[in-house]
Amino acid sequence: MGTHFDSMSRGVVDSRDVIYFLSLTLAGLMGAELRLAKRGLK
Fold it and tell me: How far apart are CA 16 and CA 1, in angstroms?
C-alpha cells in the first residue's frame, strides 16, 4: 500500500494506483453492505 500512496502523494497518477485504491474502496463498500444486510438495516 505504501508504494501506491507514495507515488500518488508526489502527484504521479498511475492507472495501477487508481485501480488499486478503487478496488479497496469497492471492497470496503461491499463489506459494509453485507454487514448492514446481516443486521437487517438494508
Answer: 12
| Inter-axis angle of helices 2-9 and 15-39, nearest 10 | 120
Alpha helix stretches (DSSP H) within 1-42:
2-9, 15-39
Q: For residues 6 and 3, give the distance between their C-alpha atoms in angstroms, rounded to a whole number.
A: 5
Tens of pLDDT, residue by residue over 1-42, are: 777 778 888 888 889 989 999 999 999 999 999 999 998 865
Query: How far is C-alpha 34 from the geometric centre of its chain's CA atoms?
Result: 16
Largest Cα separation within the chain, whole Å, is 43
> 17: number of CA atoms within 13 Å, CB side?
14
